[in-house]
Model the fold of this input.
Amino acid sequence: MAVTTSDGQHIDLHFGQTQRFSIIDVADDGAYEVREWRNAPEKHIDADGCHGWFDKVVKTLPDVDYVLTAKIGPRPHRALSAAGITPLESPESLEEVLAGLVRYRNRRAARQDEQGRR
Done:
C-alpha cells in the first residue's frame, strides 16, 4: 500500500501534491510496517497537463494494491485503477483507515469463501 502522508501517521496530502509515498505492508490483523519511503516522480506540467506525471507515478508503484490519499481527482483515479491499483480517499489517521480496510478485506474474503462453498 502507498500512502500520501507528511508524517507517517496521517493521510494528509492530496495525491497530486505528494512528493513521496510511504510504502507499507499490512497484515491481516491490521498491524502494519513501513517498508520504505518512495519518491514520487518529478512533476513537469506540459501541454498534456499532469497526465504524463500520473503515468509515471503508476510506474513507481507496481508493487502496491492500494493508494491512500486525502484527496484524488478523476484523472489520477482512472490512471491508478487502470493499473489495478485501488485509490482510496480518506483524510483520517492511518491507523483508523487501516482498521477499516482490514475489516473490509476480511468481510470480502469471508463472502468469497461462503460463495465457494455453495
